[in-house]
Amino acid sequence: MTRGGRPVAVVATLALGLLTRLAPLGWSPYPATLDGFEYARRAGSALALGRLPLGQLRADSIASTLLVSTAAEVTATAPVRLVQPLYALAGGATVLLRFVFARRLGRAWGWTPSRIHTAGVLAALAVAVEGLYVRRTGVPDDDALTLLLIPLTVLVAHRLTRTGRLRWAVPLAALLFVVPLTHTFSTLVLALALAALLAVRLLEPGERGGTLPAGALVVGFWGYAAAYYEWAERLGLTVPYVGRVASHPGLFVAWVVLVVALALWFRRWSTPAQRLAVLAPLALFFAVVAANARVTVFPGTARTPRLLLLLVAPLSVAALLGAWGSPLLAGRRSAATVLLALLAAPIAQVLFSLTASLTPEFWATAMRAQTHLHVPVLVLAAGVVAGRVAGAGRPRIALARYAGPALAVALVVSVAATLPVAYVDLDTGAHPSTTTAAEFAGSGFAATHVDGPWTSSHTLHRVGGFYFGGNATYRSTVTWLRGDGGPTPDCPVLSERSWTTTGAHLFPAAPATISQNAYDRWQAERHLVYAASGRDPLALTIPRNASGSCR
Are strands 509-512 and 493-496 parallel, antiparallel or unpaired? Predict the structure, then answer.
């Protein structure tokens, strides 16, 4: 890559990352996650009240409420239409950060400028189009913020320990203050990453003048987070995720101690052992996802659709390349230490989640944790490929000159092949995975005009309940469609034609379907109150002899 073309490549990659994350707006202007409607409602309440709506908040929703409400006020845009592009832009910024991390790793190892830049562009390109990562950073989800905040925090903490300059303590303290207000689970990941960082840093030779103040801030962070969540719980605010650790404290501590110990010993191992140590947990997660396509690994959850399994499978190429590049973490270099800490923390969370309990809650925790693995793994994979493309001299064998370009193509194609995962429903494989204008309007009509309870799928009941404040449920739909012997709901039902094909979303359980003929007969037996056509026709019906009870 020529020197003049390098800035163009960086800008083009960043633009691609923004485009993939803004793509859901092509289907709908509304949030592509159900949490996004909660964010919008809280922000709207904050603007109306002129203060934080404490009665609606979770312990980790303060940052999102302030962010969305402030942006809505500045841009004079309704929060429900602003939240999707706002979080997509925040997620797009993580693409640039991965470029920076790859460059720092290359400089630490003394790579050539060409290899450094190639690794940076490849790492940024990988996270720009990798489906699972785009899915988490391209929608209204607090991970879109914390996947930016956590690497920055660990990087700043390392700078403090390495340089001893107290000026780094100010941004570190600010970041440590913000993360618990942003996302509870990410707070746990950050706490583990910082613990691994300090443990590894204490064994590194050289300047350690900043280890004591950094350690004090990290210990203070653990105490601050614990005290804050305890205080929030006493106030009646929901504190998610913490209860999952509290229910298995011994197991959690055991995994943390084991993973941190492995991180400490990692640099003393042979190269094959290092590669195996990184490959094993990655292979375990792929095995669990694959096994879940045949049997329900976590009872009460949906099986992995075969389409989704096919879309995720190419990511194994990047995982193999990342594991092959794991010896890059063994050097006593700044970027290697940071990436090692960022790798150890989510591995500990994934292993804890897979061994604690086979419940939907821990399956969701494992899915969130694996997203944080994409950062170090893809940076390592990019470093390996860049070494073949731009790091070696003239090969002795003529065919060897094509190895680098072939690896680069394999990495880019394998991650790009997963991009559709960002836009499909994980339980059905259907697309687009967003709330359409018809669904938003139908949920609003039901919430506004139905006097009493009404039922629908998990998706529509949350839109109607979270954003419009309707008296919505989906338990009656579960009892009816899953064949549990229950009658058809004796109350208003907001239904969609897709219930006869891909099925009604009944998260965390698997979706359930009803035959086309049975659906048509059922509708014919009821009064039609509201209907909307489009990609997925929607209808609000009521029973002819309604009791008003959603049994």
Answer: unpaired
Task: Enter the tokens of residue 29.
Answer: 């202007």
Instruction: List residues bridging with 538 in a β-sheet.
Output: 496, 532
- Give the total residue count for the chain: 551
Tokens for 86? 């706002």
Q: In what order do the strands lie in the sheet with 454-455?
A: 472-473, 454-455, 493-496, 538-543, 526-532
Taking the C-alpha atoms of residue 419 and residue 373, their distance in angstroms, rounded to an integer, is 17
Tell me the per-residue pLDDT of 124-175, one tens digit each, with 9 for 90 and over. Answer: 999 999 999 999 999 999 999 999 999 999 999 988 888 878 888 999 999 9
Task: List the one residue out of 540, 426, 307, 296 whose CA is nearest residue 34.
Answer: 426
Rounded to two decimals, what is the model's pTM? Answer: 0.91
Q: Residue 309: which H helix or E strand, with range? A: helix 306-312
Average pLDDT over residues 506-514: 86
The helix-helix angle for 334-356 and 271-291 (nearest 10°) equals 40
- Cα torsion 295, 298, 302, 306 to 10°: value is -40
**Residue 174: count of CB within 10 angstroms of its CB:** 11
Our CA angle for 227, 230, 235, nearest 5°, is 125
Residue pLDDT, tens place only, 304-363: 888 888 999 999 999 999 999 999 998 766 788 899 999 999 999 999 999 998 888 888
